[in-house]
Write a structure and sequence with these properties.
The protein contains eight helices and six strands, in the order H-E-H-H-E-H-E-H-E-H-E-H-E-H. By secondary structure, the chain is an alpha/beta fold.
């Protein structure tokens, strides 16, 4: 068994960042030219959503820890059946440790995905730290693996599929 397969077999909980992981990280202006606040726009990749459903259907758990947040993130998590959503986590480590305690999950059973400096401590502590392809250098250095795809372009699907294929649980049509 490869070292990656050994890591993947332990994973029970996916911990995901939003901006730069579930989305491309682009932020639409939230203030109109007349000064009124407008809803922020975010683009989520449909394949990431499908993979998260497959993961959950197979008994895996998903949590989202984001330094930002808002109604769009809450709505997307609700749509995907993700009940563990922590928004406004700055820094993220206390929220991560609280999540591990609440779920009784050891760090080696966690796959954390991130893209930027705020995610580095989670990538270092998780059993499988994953940086998306377009992550900052420090996140890529802290991660055990880096995806081929960038954030918002199916990187989450890539990781879920990798873990489940290593375990022999990816559904094949």
């Amino acid at each position: 068994m490869t070292p990656l397969a050994v890591l993947c077999r332990k994973i029970r909980l996916l911990v995901l960042d939003v901006d730069g992981v579930l989305t491309q990280g682009h932020l639409m202006p939230a203030v109109a030219s007349n000064g009124t606040t407008q809803p922020e726009a975010k683009w989520f990749h449909v394949r990431d959503g499908l993979a998260l459903r497959v993961w959950q259907d197979a008994g895996g758990e998903v949590a989202v820890i984001t330094g930002r947040g808002g109604d769009l993130v809450a709505a997307r998590c609700k749509e995907l059946g993700i009940t563990r959503l922590i928004q406004g986590a700055n820094p993220k480590t206390p929220a991560f440790l609280r999540l591990l305690a609440e779920t009784n999950t050891p760090p080696e059973a966690v796959c954390a995905m991130g893209d930027d400096l705020a995610d580095v401590p989670l990538l270092e502590q998780a059993g499988l730290g994953v940086a998306v392809a377009d992550a900052c250098l420090d996140a890529r250095r802290a991660a055990k693996i880096t995806t081929r795809l960038g954030g918002g372009f199916g990187a989450v699907r890539e990781v879920v599929e990798l873990i489940m294929r290593e375990r022999g649980t990816w559904p094949v049509a």
